[in-house]
Amino acid sequence: MTDNSPEPRSEGQPPRVERGGLWGLFFGAAGLLLPPYGVVLSVFGVVQGFRARRAARENRTQAPGALMSVAVGVLGIVMSLSLTSVAVMYREEVTQYRDCSARAHTVSTQSECDEAWESSTGLPPTLAAG
Question: In sequence order, what are the residues at sequence separation of 6 or more whose Cβ sits closer than 8 angstroms to the Cβ of residue 45?
């Protein structure tokens, strides 16, 4: 994933660009889209971002997206862990909400499920659906 070729640069040749940061950004973004299981992808994004920065520093090149991959990866880790903690802390309420939503066939019955979730937990229903 990183571009660590040992070829020397000659004068006039543009510097090679470390592409590992872009891979890390991809992993971090995928981790944001797949909570709570995306924590693994987010960790890969953070690690890949740090590897790209180090390789770019050693080769005196640029690593576009490396810092962004670290930031997005950390955000993915925080979101995944917070959603997991909600699922653990409100296990019974989540089960009741999902059962109610499975039985809801109209907008009004789904709204009743949403209101019951909000009144019991104080959290928005989007957290239970994740």
Answer: 24, 25, 26, 27, 28, 29, 30, 31, 69, 70, 72, 73, 76
**Cα–Cα distance, 49 to 70 (Å, whole number):** 5
Tell me the Ramachandran region of residue 16: left when phi exceeds 0, alpha when psi lies from -120 to 50, beta otherwise: beta
CA 119, CA 57: separation in Å to the nearest integer?
Answer: 53
pLDDT of residue 2 exceeding 70: no
Amino acid in position 89: M
Task: Tell me the longest C-alpha to C-alpha distance in the chain.
Answer: 70
17 vs 111, residue with greater confidence: 111
- Beta-carbon contacts of 123 under 8 Å, excluding residues fewer than 6 positions away, are 86, 90, 117
pTM of this structure: 0.71
* Residue 16 CA from chain centroid, whole number: 28
